[in-house]
Amino acid sequence: MSSSDRSIGIIDTTLRDAHQCLWATRMTTPHMLPIAEKMDHAGFRQIDLAGPIQFDVCVRYLKEDPWERVRMMRQRIRQTPLRFLVRSKNLMTFDMLPDDILELWVERVVANGFGIVGAFDGLNDVDNILASTRLAKKLGVRTFGALSYSLSPVHTDELYVRTAKKLVESRTIDSIMLKDAAGLLTVDRIRTLVPAIKKVVGNVPLEIHSHCLTGLAPLVYLEAVKCGADLLHTSIAPMANGAAQPSTQSMVRNLRWMGHEVPVDDATLNEVGEHFRRIAEAEGKPLGELMEYDAFHYAHQLPGGMLSNFRSQLEHAGLQDRYDQLLEEVAKVREELGYPIMITPFAQLVGTQAVLNVVHGERYRVVPNEVKKYALGYYGALLAPVHPEVLDRIVENGSRQIPLKPTPPAPGVAALRSKYPSAPDDERLLRYMFAGSQVDEMLQTKAPMREYQHEHSVVTLLRSLAKRPRLGRIHISRGDFDLEVSGH
Questions:
Q1: pTM here?
Q2: Cα(19)–Cα(457) distance, rounded to whole angstroms?
Q3: CATH 3.20.20.70 correct for 9-283
Q4: Domains of the chain: which residue ranges?
Q5: Which of 28, 147, 233, 478 qualifies as a FRET site for 211, CA 20 to 30 Å off?
């Protein structure tokens, strides 16, 4: 089979990353349920359903049991494997988890219906990635290891080739994911990076995951396929573009024009897209739009969601006119800290330190505990050393309670089960992750898991008219339907 007529697989991100980028992760289970069976028959290779942030938002904001979401979706999605993304060895926290807690998470993820489990690490620390995939492989599910992409003097093609080689040699990885969370990949970089990775991974499939923050991702995807990539992460329009992934419909059309087979059903894609368009319209949620090219994005490399948070923080401090200065400080702090990739949790660490530097007017006068832990290697081996003078300030101004050398956290499962003897492990894990009464509040006020019902267009129109302060004579006529409303 020639390179121009390969079959290209689609990994759908609509139910995880798309609404994480466009709706602040506020897609509810009722939003998903009515369209789940359609998505199961759309022809996707996998459906990306959840990672740690979906669990976090379900518990804290949506008041949904995230495990219940997974089970209900698995009842409706029977053919297509559901995919779970593990964040290093810390999942939802900044601190590294005990090994037995992480293992229990992976066990419960598989038991609840995920057929694909993979992991990424912001330092590309292979040990932190394999901690999850080794167990997942033993449990009989497919796995992937992510290469977290970034731009810096240390994030070279050689680094990614070396990391991919280690992952494949572990024999616990079924595919390699090139994960570009900040949308930094360019066509030129793809032309060197993808062939280099493919050369060392052999027949192991290569997935491409990027975001449309600079507008380049669709071109990057098509070039990646030309260079040998096998699987693309896309979102169904209109839950695409903007800060999310490229549009599935557009990508499929272009791939087919290039001569590739893409075994997805176009009519089903459009039906799914219309379902979410109507939800967005009814609930005032944004939809993805094409982004203009932004060269400055390559300096600060911040994910889209953090930019709006920065504006809010500066306005609260009365420093809204220093927004550009803050982004410049982000780039400077990142360099001084050894070029961590701007993904969770390191994007938050760099961003918080930059805000503190700007607000206090003295750099590293205040240092969060997490920044000190990062600099001391608590989160894994650093790819480049922290600048010596900055390291001195971090150690000096950070908490005295943090030892200079990290030690592995003590096992936690036995104590957790003892603390909550009557709770199932799913609930225990939520209680381990969420402090205080957050889990109790979720369980006590759980939102009903009924399928979302689209309102009839006439009802929507009448609701809109009712909000007008003055209503004159309204006459609506369509076919045999005739309605006249007079305001007073």
A1: 0.89
A2: 24
A3: yes
A4: 9-283, 297-397, 457-486
A5: 28
